Amino acid sequence: MTSVSSYHVQGLLGSRSSFREVPFIDGEDNLRQAIKELVSSLPEEEREAYPMDEETFLRLYRSYLKHEDNIIDWEKITQPEGLINSYDSLVQPKPSEVSTMLNKLVVIKLNGGLGTSMGCAGPKSLIPVREGKNFIDLTVEQIKELNEIYHCDVPLVLMNSFNTDNDTEQTLKKLGEKRPQIFTFEQNRFPRLSAETGLPLKFNGTYSKSDRDELWYPPGHGDVYRCFQKSGLLKKFMLSGKEWVFISNIDNLGATVDTGKSVYVSILKRL
């Protein structure tokens, strides 16, 4: 794959030494126009495959233009008294109670990362872990076993990125029918910006789809809440009686639902 940096970068702000010096309104208008041009430069059949929450991206951009670093002073972060119970203080639920509560649960796994940091190509979740099984295989087995033991219906939801979506969908097709309910949604993709202009990078001339993907990036795990809602799955699950969602990384096989006391712990986020 050709690196973005090896291409000529075009910007609407010309030769300004720092895009942060551009007036706020002008900078945002230029960015909106540049995003529009970037999307328009894509082949027509690919444009709908580039999900982007433009307003969220612009909010981050405004913050950066205003030099809002939002640095957290961790010395001021304290545990709120009376709001978090200790594990030892929780009551052990009855098996029937566990089943009832699990039927209100959704498990979301963050599946947007590549395996490059591990020296592997493709989605991290497809790296073989044990006996030829990858992270998705083992996660599906965990959810399947949970449902069988407690006679419940906990669905598995994968948040993919544009880097992992296609390979993940192909893998899911091979799992067969004896599996839990599995849903997927794709997180946003935001345009990479030039450090010189503050505008989206552009390629000159003809370039491949893999090169085009280099112009974008998935914004990270914090994207899960908004994208989960926008996907329609949040509404779907709430209408079906789900109340809780357990969120963890797909490669964290130790992050499983504790069917003991911690059924009541606040690591399960209320829908």
TrEMBL record:
GO annotation (BP), single: glycogen biosynthetic process
Catalytic activity: alpha-D-glucose 1-phosphate + UTP + H(+) = UDP-alpha-D-glucose + diphosphate
Keywords: Nucleotidyltransferase, Transferase
Enzyme class label: transferase
Entry EC no(s): 2.7.7.9
Record GO terms (molecular function): UTP:glucose-1-phosphate uridylyltransferase activity
SUPFAM superfamilies given in the database record: Nucleotide-diphospho-sugar transferases
Domain of life: Eukaryota
Assembly description: Homooctamer.
Family designation: Belongs to the UDPGP type 1 family.
Described purpose of this protein according to its UniProt entry: UTP--glucose-1-phosphate uridylyltransferase catalyzing the conversion of glucose-1-phosphate into UDP-glucose, a crucial precursor for the production of glycogen.
UniProt name for this protein: UTP--glucose-1-phosphate uridylyltransferase
Organism (species): Paragonimus heterotremus
Top-level taxonomy: Eukaryota, Metazoa, Spiralia, Lophotrochozoa, Platyhelminthes
